[in-house]
Design goal:
This protein is mostly helical.
Length: 154
Protein backbone atom coordinates (compact mmCIF):
# COMPACT_ATOMS: atom_id res chain seq x y z
CA UNK A 1 0.00 0.00 0.00
CA UNK A 2 1.36 3.38 -0.92
CA UNK A 3 0.87 6.02 1.73
CA UNK A 4 -1.35 8.34 -0.26
CA UNK A 5 -5.00 9.13 -0.68
CA UNK A 6 -7.88 9.58 1.71
CA UNK A 7 -8.38 6.75 4.21
CA UNK A 8 -12.12 7.36 4.64
CA UNK A 9 -14.90 9.11 2.77
CA UNK A 10 -17.00 12.03 3.93
CA UNK A 11 -20.03 9.71 4.08
CA UNK A 12 -18.13 7.29 6.34
CA UNK A 13 -17.21 10.19 8.60
CA UNK A 14 -20.80 11.42 8.66
CA UNK A 15 -22.13 8.00 9.68
CA UNK A 16 -19.44 7.40 12.29
CA UNK A 17 -20.77 7.25 15.86
CA UNK A 18 -17.99 9.61 16.94
CA UNK A 19 -18.96 12.41 14.56
CA UNK A 20 -22.73 12.05 15.08
CA UNK A 21 -23.41 13.67 11.69
CA UNK A 22 -25.92 11.14 10.42
CA UNK A 23 -28.78 13.63 10.65
CA UNK A 24 -30.01 14.94 7.30
CA UNK A 25 -28.44 18.18 6.18
CA UNK A 26 -29.73 20.90 3.91
CA UNK A 27 -28.84 19.97 0.30
CA UNK A 28 -27.42 23.45 -0.16
CA UNK A 29 -24.97 22.87 2.69
CA UNK A 30 -24.07 19.32 1.66
CA UNK A 31 -21.46 20.33 -0.90
CA UNK A 32 -19.69 22.72 1.48
CA UNK A 33 -19.85 20.23 4.36
CA UNK A 34 -18.51 17.42 2.16
CA UNK A 35 -15.60 19.60 1.04
CA UNK A 36 -14.81 20.48 4.67
CA UNK A 37 -14.98 16.84 5.76
CA UNK A 38 -12.78 15.72 2.86
CA UNK A 39 -10.17 18.37 3.69
CA UNK A 40 -10.13 17.22 7.32
CA UNK A 41 -9.85 13.58 6.21
CA UNK A 42 -6.94 14.46 3.88
CA UNK A 43 -5.07 16.05 6.78
CA UNK A 44 -5.97 13.19 9.11
CA UNK A 45 -4.78 10.65 6.54
CA UNK A 46 -1.44 12.43 6.34
CA UNK A 47 -1.03 12.01 10.12
CA UNK A 48 -1.64 8.27 9.79
CA UNK A 49 0.64 7.96 6.76
CA UNK A 50 3.50 9.71 8.55
CA UNK A 51 3.29 7.16 11.37
CA UNK A 52 3.15 4.33 8.81
CA UNK A 53 6.17 5.69 6.94
CA UNK A 54 8.17 5.87 10.18
CA UNK A 55 7.64 2.15 10.73
CA UNK A 56 8.11 1.11 7.09
CA UNK A 57 4.47 0.11 6.58
CA UNK A 58 3.90 2.07 3.36
CA UNK A 59 5.34 -0.56 1.01
CA UNK A 60 3.81 -3.75 2.37
CA UNK A 61 0.62 -5.70 1.97
CA UNK A 62 -1.60 -4.69 4.85
CA UNK A 63 -3.13 -7.23 7.22
CA UNK A 64 -6.83 -7.91 6.67
CA UNK A 65 -7.95 -5.88 9.70
CA UNK A 66 -5.78 -2.87 8.93
CA UNK A 67 -8.00 -1.06 6.43
CA UNK A 68 -10.88 -0.62 8.88
CA UNK A 69 -8.50 0.28 11.72
CA UNK A 70 -6.81 2.99 9.63
CA UNK A 71 -10.21 4.28 8.49
CA UNK A 72 -11.33 4.53 12.13
CA UNK A 73 -8.10 6.27 13.08
CA UNK A 74 -8.46 8.82 10.26
CA UNK A 75 -12.10 9.53 11.13
CA UNK A 76 -11.33 10.10 14.80
CA UNK A 77 -8.32 12.23 13.86
CA UNK A 78 -10.48 14.33 11.52
CA UNK A 79 -13.13 14.86 14.18
CA UNK A 80 -10.84 15.46 17.14
CA UNK A 81 -7.48 16.77 15.99
CA UNK A 82 -8.57 18.59 12.84
CA UNK A 83 -11.63 19.73 14.82
CA UNK A 84 -14.05 19.94 11.91
CA UNK A 85 -16.28 22.98 12.21
CA UNK A 86 -19.32 20.81 11.54
CA UNK A 87 -18.81 18.78 14.73
CA UNK A 88 -17.80 21.57 17.09
CA UNK A 89 -20.06 21.54 20.09
CA UNK A 90 -20.97 17.87 19.61
CA UNK A 91 -18.00 16.62 21.64
CA UNK A 92 -17.49 17.68 25.22
CA UNK A 93 -13.99 18.80 26.20
CA UNK A 94 -13.53 15.59 28.20
CA UNK A 95 -14.54 13.38 25.26
CA UNK A 96 -12.36 15.36 22.88
CA UNK A 97 -9.38 14.98 25.21
CA UNK A 98 -10.02 11.25 25.61
CA UNK A 99 -10.12 10.72 21.82
CA UNK A 100 -7.10 12.98 21.32
CA UNK A 101 -5.08 10.84 23.76
CA UNK A 102 -6.26 7.66 22.04
CA UNK A 103 -5.31 8.89 18.56
CA UNK A 104 -1.91 10.09 19.79
CA UNK A 105 -1.27 6.74 21.46
CA UNK A 106 -2.29 4.76 18.35
CA UNK A 107 -0.05 6.86 16.10
CA UNK A 108 2.85 6.33 18.51
CA UNK A 109 2.24 2.56 18.56
CA UNK A 110 2.30 2.50 14.76
CA UNK A 111 5.45 4.66 14.63
CA UNK A 112 7.32 2.42 17.08
CA UNK A 113 6.20 -0.82 15.45
CA UNK A 114 4.24 -2.01 18.47
CA UNK A 115 1.21 -2.28 16.20
CA UNK A 116 2.31 -4.07 13.03
CA UNK A 117 0.10 -3.20 10.07
CA UNK A 118 1.76 -5.46 7.49
CA UNK A 119 0.37 -8.92 6.80
CA UNK A 120 2.44 -11.78 8.17
CA UNK A 121 4.65 -9.56 10.31
CA UNK A 122 4.96 -9.36 14.06
CA UNK A 123 5.16 -6.23 16.19
CA UNK A 124 8.31 -4.95 17.86
CA UNK A 125 7.33 -6.56 21.15
CA UNK A 126 6.80 -10.04 19.73
CA UNK A 127 8.98 -12.44 21.73
CA UNK A 128 11.81 -13.88 19.67
CA UNK A 129 14.84 -15.60 21.14
CA UNK A 130 17.44 -17.34 19.04
CA UNK A 131 20.24 -17.21 21.54
CA UNK A 132 18.59 -18.70 24.62
CA UNK A 133 20.00 -22.22 24.24
CA UNK A 134 21.50 -23.56 27.46
CA UNK A 135 23.88 -26.41 28.02
CA UNK A 136 24.22 -28.75 30.96
CA UNK A 137 26.28 -31.44 29.24
CA UNK A 138 29.26 -31.52 26.90
CA UNK A 139 27.11 -33.09 24.17
CA UNK A 140 24.63 -30.20 24.37
CA UNK A 141 27.49 -27.70 24.26
CA UNK A 142 28.69 -29.24 20.99
CA UNK A 143 25.15 -29.17 19.60
CA UNK A 144 24.72 -25.49 20.56
CA UNK A 145 28.02 -24.58 18.90
CA UNK A 146 27.02 -26.48 15.76
CA UNK A 147 23.63 -24.70 15.70
CA UNK A 148 25.37 -21.33 15.95
CA UNK A 149 27.74 -22.20 13.11
CA UNK A 150 24.74 -23.28 11.02
CA UNK A 151 22.91 -20.01 11.72
CA UNK A 152 25.93 -17.91 10.80
CA UNK A 153 26.38 -19.85 7.56
CA UNK A 154 22.82 -19.27 6.35
Amino acid sequence: MACSGRLATADELRSSPIACLDTPIDPGEAVAQTAMLEAALDMASSDVYSAMAASGACDCTLASWTTEYLKKLAIIDAVVIQHCACVRGLLTDALREMWLNWVSQQLELIRTGKIELCAGETGSEFPALGWAEQSVTIANTVKIIQNRINRLGS
